[in-house]
């Protein structure tokens, strides 16, 4: 079974966790606030770890040494970038992704070889795309 | 030297003051407006309001001209980002990060920060030296090379009493630098006889301090 670790159990993190889990993945979720796990369905089969993502012990107890994928999806850009780099450079996880809000910084991390998703750019583009053509 | 400090807490403020006193060019970046206003009243125009984790801020303060960037915020992930941007985007030759969680010292170094400083670790090491090796006085610690200079007084029960230096089984990487006997100062040679109450100053591999103490001042001895 493929194993994923998701750091940050907000709206985005919990939704991705649930989808992967339903798709047959073994998913562990880390969040510093234990209350955040209420966003997961009650029968969510994966691990819930209350801890901070930049703590190696929290990552280890989530099973990072066997993980195929680490997704850093908290609302802190720097936390996400650090988690993704720890996963890639220290724990040698094959696929990592960091959610970054600041478009400038997203580009920087891309240059460092860290795949990023910048919601600011994505949402802006979608909004511009939805506008009637030729009116902006 | 042009030093950029990010994070205007107690550490950042006092660091800025010391560096200014030594005649360096200093710029202190603080993102909280209230804190910034307070710092500015204290230090004047060297305090900059902005987020040091953002490219734009670092551009505005002339980061590419900096000799050193020191990140001393209370968040390890922010300090990492600051140092990485400074290094990779602005080619700053030396970056130093304060580490708040001791286990992150390794992480930040592995991810490219030149040097890390962890208050918890430093205080812990000092306490450990006091507690674990109570008969050992640490006179100097060399970060590079793992060497210490320590002072140990030979106890009555030590197996080295009455023996010459060349006949005792010293740990590896250990050198006796001097010996104080009463008011007398002796530069020890292989033939120097050791007496109880001698105070020996040695240069030694940090890992071997425990063995040297067991030899000169064994636990349970007087």
Calculate the terminal CA-CA distance of chain A, rounded to whole Å.
Answer: 48 Å
Assign the CATH superfamily of the largest domain in chain B: NAD(P)-binding Rossmann-like Domain
Strand content of chain A: 15-25%
Shape of chain B: elongated
Flag low-confidence runs of chain A: none
Summed up, the helix count of chain A is 5
Work out the number of β strands of chain A. 6
Rounded to the nearest angstrom, the radius of gyration of chain A is: 16 Å
Please tag this protein with its features.
heterodimer; A: 136 residues; alpha/beta; Rossmann fold; six-stranded parallel beta sheet; 5 helices; 6 strands; 39% helix; 21% strand; globular; B: 222 residues; Alpha-Beta Plaits; 2 domains; five-stranded antiparallel beta sheet; 11 strands
Topology:
The complex is a heterodimer of chains A (136) and B (222).
Chain A: E1 3-7, H1 11-22, E2 26-31, E3 47-50, H2 56-61, E4 69-72, H3 77-90, E5 95-100, H4 103-111, E6 116-118, H5 119-130
Parallel strand pairs in A: 1-2, 1-4, 2-3, 4-5, 5-6
Chain B: E1 2-6, H1 10-21, E2 25-30, H2 33-43, E3 47-49, H3 55-60, E4 68-71, H4 76-90, E5 94-98, H5 104-110, E6 115-117, H6 119-132, E7 136-142, E8 147-153, E9 174-181, E10 184-186, E11 199-205, H7 209-216
Parallel strand pairs in B: 1-2, 1-4, 2-3, 4-5, 5-6
Antiparallel strand pairs in B: 7-8, 8-11, 9-10, 9-11
Tell me what you see in this structure.
The complex is a heterodimer of chains A (136) and B (222). By secondary structure, chain A is of the alpha/beta class. Chain A has a single domain (3-130), classed as Rossmann fold, CATH 3.40.50. Chain A has helices at residues 11-22, 56-61, 77-90, 103-111, 119-130; strands at 3-7, 26-31, 47-50, 69-72, 95-100, 116-118. In chain A, strands 3-2-1-4-5-6 form a six-stranded parallel β-sheet, with helices on both faces. Chain A is globular, with a radius of gyration of 16 Å. Chain B is of the alpha/beta class and 222 residues long. Chain B folds into two domains: 2-122, 3-Layer(aba) Sandwich (Rossmann fold), CATH 3.40.50; 133-216, Alpha-Beta Plaits. In chain B, 33% of the residues lie in helices and 26% in strands. Chain B has helices at residues 10-21, 33-43, 55-60, 76-90, 104-110, 119-132, 209-216; strands at residues 2-6, 25-30, 47-49, 68-71, 94-98, 115-117, 136-142, 147-153, 174-181, 184-186, 199-205. In chain B, α4 (76-90) links the parallel β4 (68-71) and β5. The longest helix of chain B has 15 residues, at 76-90. The termini of chain B are far apart. The interface between A and B is medium-sized, with 20 and 20 residues.
């Amino acid at each position: 079974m493929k194993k994923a670790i998701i750091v940050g159990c907000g709206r985005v993190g919990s939704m991705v966790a649930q989808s992967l889990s339903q798709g047959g993945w073994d998913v562990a979720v880390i969040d510093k606030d234990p209350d955040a796990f209420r966003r997961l369905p009650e029968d969510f089969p994966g691990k819930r770890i209350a801890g901070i993502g930049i703590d190696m012990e929290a990552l280890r107890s989530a099973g990072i040494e066997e993980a195929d994928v680490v997704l850093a999806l908290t609302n802190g850009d720097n936390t996400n970038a650090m988690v993704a780099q720890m996963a890639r450079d220290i724990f040698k996880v094959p696929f990592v992704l960091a959610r970054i809000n600041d478009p400038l910084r997203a580009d920087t991390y891309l240059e460092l070889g860290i795949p990023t998703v910048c919601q600011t750019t994505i949402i802006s583009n979608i909004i511009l795309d939805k506008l009637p053509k030729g009116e902006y | 030297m042009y030093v950029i400090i990010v994070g205007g807490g107690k550490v950042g403020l006092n660091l800025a003051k010391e560096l200014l006193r030594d005649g360096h060019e200093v710029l202190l970046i603080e993102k909280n407006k209230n804190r910034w206003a307070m710092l500015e009243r204290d230090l004047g125009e060297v305090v900059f309001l902005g987020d040091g984790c953002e490219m734009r801020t670092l551009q505005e303060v002339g980061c590419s001209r900096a000799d050193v960037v020191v990140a001393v915020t209370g968040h390890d992930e922010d300090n990492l980002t600051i140092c990485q941007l400074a290094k990779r985007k602005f080619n700053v030759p030396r970056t130093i990060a304060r580490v708040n969680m001791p286990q992150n010292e390794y992480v930040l170094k592995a991810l490219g920060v030149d040097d890390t400083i962890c208050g918890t670790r430093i205080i812990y090491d000092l306490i450990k030296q006091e507690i674990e090796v109570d008969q050992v006085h640490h006179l100097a610690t060399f970060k590079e090379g793992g060497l210490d200079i320590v002072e140990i007084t030979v106890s009555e029960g030590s197996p080295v009493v009455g023996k010459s230096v060349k006949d005792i089984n010293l740990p590896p990487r250990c050198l006796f630098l001097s010996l104080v006997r009463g008011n007398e100062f002796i530069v020890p040679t292989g033939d120097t006889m050791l007496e109880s109450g001698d105070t020996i100053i040695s240069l030694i591999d940090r890992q071997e301090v425990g063995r040297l103490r067991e030899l000169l001042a064994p636990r349970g001895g007087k």
